[in-house]
Specification:
about 110 residues, 1 helix
Length: about 110
């Protein structure tokens, strides 16, 4: 089974300090699609970002200028390789479980004979 994964952002939770519209939490999901049969699954998760005391270094990006790639970079950085692989494992397991159910014949219930 070969799975293609895609990281997506659902929502950005903002706080007003140290700058207006500072991102505190990223709600996201990992989407996986089985390349063999097209069946897909997702795994929802939330990443909490550490807030700096200030952005004096000039690294603050205004909310309106954020990009999906930038936010996903933060997410992947917080998750690390281990966290990313764990989420992929959860999606893979869901797809595997579905494939097993789809290939197992189900019993058909018959009406009572009377």
């Amino acid at each position: 089974m070969s799975i293609t994964y895609r990281w997506e952002v659902s929502n950005l939770q903002r706080v007003s300090a140290p700058e207006p519209d500072t991102i505190r939490e990223v709600r996201a999901y990992l989407y996986g699609e089985d390349d063999d049969n097209g069946y897909s699954q997702t795994e929802l998760f939330t990443v909490t970002l550490e807030l700096p005391e200030s952005y004096e270094s000039g690294s603050f990006t205004d909310f309106d200028n954020l990009t999906k790639d930038q936010v996903l970079g933060w997410v992947k950085s917080v998750l690390g390789t281990e966290g990313q692989e764990q989420l992929k494992g959860l999606v893979s397991k869901k797809i595997e479980d579905y494939n097993k159910k789809a290939s197992t014949p189900t019993a058909v219930e018959k009406h009572l004979p009377w």
